[in-house]
């Protein structure tokens, strides 16, 4: 299943579904009772994003012929995908998205979406290294219309969504060095000892980014070995 913004960033055999509000088909899909229990009593916005993003994920699972099972949080909050699937979900103001791949083809998928707005200074100083800051200055000369510091944050969140389910461990923003390219690709070098998982080394990850419709998107699909 393709279409939307997210589909532009992922290989053709990854099912990508996104939604720009909470009134489309994804939002109308009912939650499983276990999921509904998890969000009973939460604020309305959290209920909407939780519901719509799971609708996106179920549409993606169905497109791949996989069971549209409940998507509950596992270790460190990473969603537990049905047998045979790997995937990732993201939501931010005005956007919800899910990507799902066949576990025989992909070891992990990590996606993130952020508003295309500069990071607050206090956050930027924790997330952006001096080397990345110097590169962002060059990127701003190339295109001043993109919040490059937020894009680095976005890429790092998508890295964490790959790293966390595969390793079960924490990764700090300072542990990843992001190199963005104007052509919509990026490379991330991990600055910590990165394990090899199922024959695939995690020390360098590559992905694609996009700035459109007031949003920044990052996506990594890590193939199996
Ligand atoms: C977990 C985290 C990455 C989520 O990112 P976010 O921008 O806050 O929120 P998003 O809407 O993009 O993503 C939320 C979804 O991510 C998924 N998620 C949560 N924890 C996760 C984890 N450990 N691994 C993979 N996916 C996770 C969930 O599906 C969640 O949605 P849900 O609660 O409705 O199920 C972020 O909150 C966080 O903890 N970051 C700190 C770690 C980090 O990013 N380090 C950088 C390393 S370079």
Automatic annotation (TrEMBL):
Residues 108-193 form the 4'-phosphopantetheinyl transferase domain. Its cofactor is Mg(2+). The keyword Magnesium applies. This is 4'-phosphopantetheinyl transferase. CoA binds at residues 46, 54, 90-91, 112, 157, 161, 171. It comes from Streptomyces sp. R21. Mg(2+) binds at residues 112-114. Residues 34-100 form the 4'-phosphopantetheinyl transferase N-terminal domain. Keywords: Magnesium, Metal-binding, Transferase. GO terms for cellular component: enterobactin synthetase complex; plasma membrane. One of its GO terms (molecular function) is magnesium ion binding. GO terms for biological process: enterobactin biosynthetic process. The lineage of its organism: Bacteria, Bacillati, Actinomycetota, Actinomycetes, Kitasatosporales. The keyword Isomerase does not apply. SUPFAM superfamilies: 4'-phosphopantetheinyl transferase.
